[in-house]
Amino acid sequence: MLIMLFCLEQILFNMVVEVPRWSNAKMEIATKEPLNPIKQDVKKGKLRYVANIFPHKGYIWNYGALPQTWEDPSHTDEDTKCCGDNDPIDVCEIGSKVCATGQVIQVKVLGILALIDEGETDWKVIAINIEDPDASSLNSIEDVRKIKPGHLEATVDWFKKYKVPDGKPENRFAFNGQFKDKDFAIEVIKATHIFWKALVMRKKMKGEEIICQNSSLCDSPFRCSDAEARAVLQAVSVCPFYFFIFTKFSFFLIFFFWILF
Ligand SMILES: [Mg+2]
């Protein structure tokens, strides 16, 4: 499925939800796997979860990414003086509804925070689901401060500390941790969209790991047919099925074979 970045005259954007609000599993678009599925991140062979950092519970917003964007690791940002983190741009959706992993929602962009995560630029767009009851009254980062008191402070606190339980130092921010406004955010999004275009349209692989194979971008040299895309899906869907059967019913299977033989 082709999910466009812009959905209405460059004001509303499509967002792909990776992590539902209040949950802990670090689900993310796996850019290094064919067709970029959403999977739980694995570190040192273990599934990754974020810790609950008092007074927060899991991710405090619906967390996800804007499709068709890329924070280019070979580009040094003028403001942050750091390179991109090699991922799509991240979004914190502050609406009250809990969304689902993989859901695509339309969001209104309100502002942006410049996180420096382990020396990389990692922009965090602040946005609201247009279907949220508060969406019509939220039109700027100042509106968020007034209508949702504490949300912005909690967001800075969360990103500052979320890696501390893994033994890492507190994260830093550009602009002293101040949020930039909606117009600034939209300029950053547009820049990451241009980086993404260059990534999927280039003729040669640079030997890096991002898999740009797709079935919908007409001019992309990485475009594949629907049949090829389906083959990728079929190849991976068989394994989890057997894994599921084995893990869920292994006791019964062993018992069954014991009776049989
Ligand atoms: Mg990021």
From TrEMBL:
<dbReference type="InterPro" id="IPR008162">
    <property type="entry name" value="Pyrophosphatase"/>
</dbReference>
<dbReference type="GO" id="GO:0000287">
    <property type="term" value="F:magnesium ion binding"/>
</dbReference>
<dbReference type="Pfam" id="PF00719">
    <property type="entry name" value="Pyrophosphatase"/>
</dbReference>
<comment type="subunit">
    <text>Homodimer.</text>
</comment>
<feature type="transmembrane region" description="Helical">
    <location>
        <begin position="241"/>
        <end position="260"/>
    </location>
</feature>
<dbReference type="GO" id="GO:0005737">
    <property type="term" value="C:cytoplasm"/>
</dbReference>
<dbReference type="GO" id="GO:0004427">
    <property type="term" value="F:inorganic diphosphate phosphatase activity"/>
</dbReference>
<keyword id="KW-0472">Membrane</keyword>
<dbReference type="InterPro" id="IPR036649">
    <property type="entry name" value="Pyrophosphatase_sf"/>
</dbReference>
<keyword id="KW-0732">Signal</keyword>
<keyword id="KW-0460">Magnesium</keyword>
<keyword id="KW-0378">Hydrolase</keyword>
<keyword id="KW-1133">Transmembrane helix</keyword>
<protein>
    <recommendedName>
        <fullName>inorganic diphosphatase</fullName>
        <ecNumber>3.6.1.1</ecNumber>
    </recommendedName>
</protein>
<dbReference type="GO" id="GO:0006796">
    <property type="term" value="P:phosphate-containing compound metabolic process"/>
</dbReference>
<feature type="signal peptide">
    <location>
        <begin position="1"/>
        <end position="18"/>
    </location>
</feature>
<keyword id="KW-0812">Transmembrane</keyword>
<comment type="similarity">
    <text>Belongs to the PPase family.</text>
</comment>
<keyword id="KW-0479">Metal-binding</keyword>
<keyword id="KW-0007">Acetylation</keyword>
